[in-house]
Amino acid sequence: MSTAAAADARADRDPRSTFDVSGTDPDEAVRMYQDAYEGAGFAADRTDRVFGYRFKVVGDDTMTFRSTRFDGRMRGEVEVRDEYVVMWTAEGGGRVDIGRDEVAFGPRTPMMFPSGRPFVFDLADLRQSLVQFDRAYLEGVAAEVHGVQPGPLVFDHARTPDPADLRAWNAHVQRAARIVLGPAPLSGLALAETTRETAHVLLRTFPHTVLAPEVLLPQGATGRVRTAIEYMHASAHTPITTTDVAERVGLSVRGLQQAFQRQVGTAPNAMLRGIRLDRIHDELERGRPGETTVASVAVRWGFAHLGRFSAAYARRFGEYPRDTLQR
Fold first, then answer.
1. Of 16, 157, 227, 310, which has the highest C-beta tally within 10 A?
2. Cβ neighbours for 223, distance < 8 A, ≥ 6 positions apart
3. Longest CA–CA separation in the chain, Å
4. Considering its fold, how many domains does the chain have in total?
5. Are residues 271 and 144 located together in one domain of the fold?
6. Percentage of residues in the chain with pLDDT exceeding 90?
7. How far apart are CA 74 and CA 204, in angstroms?
């Protein structure tokens, strides 16, 4: 097979993976759901139904469609740090975010998982559907939609969306589910288009705020240098390089380097590295020791060599990353 043919074959390969588990043991259900949602203190009890559960996930690393059948009662604490999740039920319900912004959750009204912090739930006898998005992906789409820099999204889970928006969401999810969950082979491009459209509909439907980081432009940055720095801030979460930045603003790499030195006195790659260090600092300040690790945050922002990363971090912030996280 030629190189081009091999590339075409990879592009046409169905990107979906499936996880499907069921059982009748409450202890097994607790372990499975607690692992799936990185939760704590999960407990399951029997109701007047014969206990049983099934949990199915279909999708890729960016978006999954999930379904739960749970004949019993489940309670515990969840904090979804790396994803955003919207859920709804055809049957059953209970309470979500107990002790804080508590919501009584019932059939046919979708709601977002509370984001950015742990929440306590108590649900029973569910027929539940969920759509999950990778955190960085949805934040990137939201940044494009709102014209801001990518940042954490805070959804107001206690606020009921507009009825017209909910109707649009329900109609779209039915169409998307036929694509994602259907038996027909699915190309990577078709799944990516479905994912992006679903993200846009979600953001139109569910009230939210973007905690966008403030973009501080160095004094003296004008013209293409200013545009380049704004692009770095907007795309720092993606694997862009100095070459990508130069192409974006219509300069050669050497021309970009010279312009940066004249206007802001530093190299563009140093500027990009500093922006990413600032994002890591923000994440570590929000993180929780024992749940967030320095290594995972550093690698996600492109720092593979942890020793060099720690030294660069200490030079920029006057403390080591572990100290920021512990504080």
1. 157
2. none
3. 75
4. 2
5. no
6. 66
7. 31
Amino acid symbol at 51: F
Report d(CA 112, CA 138) in Å as an integer: 13
214 lies in some domain? no
Is 218 part of any domain?
no
Q: What is the CATH number of the domain that holds 101?
A: 2.60.120.10
Q: Evaluate whether 63 touches 15 at the Cβ level (below 8 Å).
A: no
What's the pLDDT score for residue 214?
Answer: 65
One domain for residues 239 and 280: yes
Sequence-distant (≥ 6) Cβ neighbours of residue 158 within 8 angstroms? 97, 101, 103
Same domain, 76 and 129: yes
Q: Find, among 88, 59, 62, the residue nearest to 199 by Cα.
A: 62
Take residue 271 and report the two structure tokens written for it: 């500027």
Phi, psi for residue 285 in degrees, rounded to 5: -65, -35
- Average pLDDT taken over every residue of the chain: 90
**194 and 233 fall within a common domain:** no
**Count of Cβ atoms closer than 10 Å to residue 216 Cβ:** 10
- Which amino acid is located at 75 in the chain? R
Residues 184 and 302 in one domain: no
> 174 is in which domain, residue-wise?
3-208
Per-residue confidence band for 256, with pLDDT thresholds at 50, 70 and 90 = very high
Q: What is the per-residue pLDDT for 219?
A: 83
Whether residue 213 lies inside any domain: the answer is no
